[in-house]
Amino acid sequence: PEETEAAAAAIEEENLAVKPGGDRPISTILIVIAMQTEALPLVAKFELSEDLDRSAFPKGVPWVRYHGTYKGLDINLVWPGKDTILGETQEPSNCFCQVNGSNLAFEAQSVDSVGTVSASLLTYASIQALKPDLIINAGTAGGFQARGACIKDVYLVSDVAFHDRRIPIPVSIHATVVFDLYGIGTKRTFSTPYLEKELGLKVGKLSTGDSLDMCPQDESSIIANDATVKDMEGAAVAYVAGLFSIPAIFLKAVTDIVDGPKPTAEEFMENLIAVSAALHQAVTEVVDFISGKSLSDL
Ligand code: ADE
Questions:
Q1: Of 94, 182, 273, 283, which one is least surrounded by beta carbons within 10 A?
Q2: What are 139-153's pLDDT values in tens digits?
Q3: d(CA 53, CA 117)
Q4: Ligand 1 centre from 231 Cα, in Å?
Q5: Which residue's CA lies nearest to atom 6 of ligand 1?
């Protein structure tokens, strides 16, 4: 209906509004990454050091910040660390979890704090402490082959939305159910036409949810969101960045084909390391492009 289009146009206009300071050279970049495997190649590339004092964050949280200077840019790479209970342990044989009522011993290698809750908190705290000019959320994603995605493709994201926040409460403004719209949370990302042209990355829409797998309801929402890639953090990072009017761009590398024959978790694990290398390459090219430029040059 017309009203839905009007509401969507209003959201778009807000997202595209020119922010002050767009002509200043970009100085501080915040790179938000959910998994250690995705983060470490970039820590090495940019020669970042870990902030061992954890000075940017409250005491007790597992969040990790690496920082350094690269090509004139002050780079901060943050990841939410390992889960405080299920994360890496010295005594893997002492770990148990309950599955279908029985205790299972498991080898705890590494459980990163993935998902929207950790990503939101980390992005919030990092913005407060570091006041970045630009946020880059980089990570892996599932891709839809029906929309042209292939393993190792890296997408520059044009729009983000959530696919697992269904709120069918009939609160409407001019016949548009606004609670539903709030849940979906569609946002255009910061527009980077020059970057897009220069690097020739694929461009597509991203849908975010807190599950690696996909139930039929999520699938319908992802299709409604017109998404080519699905992840577990992007729209949450965009929400927090939007609260503080910080421009954010999203690079998502495809580890698994969601509408393909292989089980997602298996395909994800199989490709994680190789795809993290492709992601590292793309992030490096983006950061090289950003160096010496202002927001309006992107
Ligand atoms: N990250 C990598 N693959 C994913 C998938 N299929 N769904 C959500 N996040 C992912």
A1: 94
A2: 999 999 999 999 999
A3: 24
A4: 5
A5: 142
